[in-house]
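Me: Here is a favour to ask of a fellow structure person. Could you put it straight underneath, so I can go through it closely?

Assistant:
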Amino acid sequence: MGFLYPLVLLLSVPALLFCIWFIRMQYLAIREISNLVHPSKVSKLTMLLSSKDGKLSGYWKFWFYQIFLSISFLSLVVSLAGPNISGDSKIESNQTSVYFVFDGSWSMDAEDVKILDGYSFVPRTRFEESRFHSMELLKRNSDQVSFGVITFAGSAVQHSHPLPDPVWINDILFNQMNQHNTFYSGTNYVSAFQELINSSRYLGEGFQVVLYSDGDASEDEKAKGLEYIKNFSRLGIPVHVVALGTIQGAETDLTFNLLKSVVSNKNLSGDAAGNDYEISSNVSVQKRKSVPDFEFLRRIAVETGGAFIRTNEGYAGFDELSDAIHTAKAKKQTLLWEAGGREVISPYFFLLPFL
């Protein structure tokens, strides 16, 4: 438990001393007066606290009220300090939005795509397949739900490859999707998942996730991703996973993007300092073999109640994904207006003396 205004708690010490002093003064006053009158008249000192039948209250009731008022006063002081516990400010809403989340890391440049029917274009790499797959899925469902886009590990400034296609991203964001659109370039699964959770405070309606990835990441990154995905399970947010690549894996060039500063360009990247860049050339650093981790991706889908599709099995899964999206659309989701934040419990402290 924490406090929004911990300094206010400093007042609790003088408040406690005041209550003790006040009760002591009343006790001394009553004792002094009782010594001046006949014992049979002492009960009249508490005549203010008489019962309905007119009988005078005893000392026990008088002191009970004094202690009650003191506890109430102390509870008020603690309530002003803003006591809170870890929790989430939340509301419930239907899952009527879908976020496409694209893994744009270097491994997604591997060329081990199995050609599937249903694509408008022939994909060359895993990343291209994720684009074409999402465009087809969007085409089939755009009249039913709204879509948004999040990418991670795909910025030129981070020297990772391949780059998100700025023209395609812009076309999806501004021309096709119209609602709840976010473009984010993080560096791992957790950063993308955090952005999704935090976005719920802006959406105003529930959402689902379609994750395009090959699962090729470090063990530490995958462990952190699985740990964070528990938040999606807790909130009832399904993550539908489209696993890309083949079991055998494929070699790909790990490239280093040489950048040059530019004044203005539609297809550019920026860094935290506000500088704009475009690629001048790509330099191959080394060849690496990328082997997908389908079990990792399957766990994400299973733990969140989402669909799991492996395109290398020759199945695009458009119908299955569409059905899963429409089924989840009718379900209630907890929206976090302050995800992982604080739940204020001041009213409980204020009402504590009355319990």
